[in-house]
Each structure stands twice: as C-alpha cells, then as structure tokens.
# Entry
Amino acid sequence: MKIPFTLFSLFVIFALWTLYEIHKSKTKQQKDEQKFWEREREADNVRRKPVDNLPYISITDEIIPNIDTYNDNLLSLINQLSAMKELKILNLSGKSNTDLKMEYGPANLPFLTECDNNFIKLCRITNALGKELADNNYINDAISIYEFAIFNGSDVSSSYHELAKLYLSSGRKEDIKKLIERAEGLDSLLKESIINKLNDCYSSSHN
# Structure
C-alpha cells in the first residue's frame, strides 16, 4: 500500500523539525555548560573578601520564649533554639556555590555554607517551636517565633500558614496582608504556593 504523498511529506517535515529541535537543544545545553564552567573557573580565582559585616541573624534572649512548662518536647525545642545563639547564621537563599565564590572568594565557601546550613536549621526549629507553642496555648509566643523566622526570610510554607491562622484567631486579619507582602519578597520555589495559600486564607476571612 502506497503512502499518500501529502502524508509522506508531513512525515518528512515532522522528522526534520524533530531533528532540528534536538540539535538546537543540544547546542543550547553545550553553550550553557560552557558558560557555567567559565564562570566557575572565574569564581575559583576570586580573592578572599571580608565577611565580618554580612547581615547575620541574631538570636537574642528576648526571642527565646520564657515560659513555665513541663512539656518535654516544648522544652527541647526552646533549648535547641537557645543553643543557636552563638552560631553564625546567614540567609543565603537563592545563591549557588558559584555565586558565593564570586562574591566572597572560594576560601570563604565552607564558612558561608555552614552559615546557610544554620539558617536552614533555624527555620526548621522555629517552625516546630511555633506549632508546639500554639498547640499548648502560648499564642503570643508562637506568633513572635513565627514572625521572627519569617522576618529573617524563612520560606517554610507551614510557618506562614500557621501564623496566618493565629492572626485570624487573634482578630488580626489585616496582618495577613503584611505576610503576603513578605512572601512576595521571597527568593524561593515555594513563593507562589505560599502566596496563594495566604490569599485564600485572607479571602476566606472576609466571606
């Protein structure tokens, strides 16, 4: 059975177009890889720069909840947060290792990586602590902990959502708008999801 000319022509055109797209994709990938390695080599040759005046996050005694409780889990989380007071903490979200080397030199990369890991740990602890405080009816302390984490750039979605719920239950509906504004400044893959949830929370409070 002979294939109609028009159908055969379409098949050839489609095959050629597919080959072209594959070639274009490979070419772009090769160029992107070349740019990456060129920038990486450039970053590896950057001289050490001062890191003393970076915006380190401070955990003061005022931030640590001062409550009388026998809840072991709550006490453990408070102690974990308190133990971080002496650590160097930096929110380096959105910056790759290459970015950090370009800005501060490769010699500072291990230190900056540690600071960033401390920030991730801080976000995890404050999220868990805020929830535990709220569950045990320490509402004001929970709000303070969530606000501290979010003000310093946490992108933990549940911290935003839980704080929004606490605002609602405390008669502070309009403060959700401030949360939305804060979320809009995030450099995170979770940004849109967080904003959508906050908008839903704010909208539902006015129904």
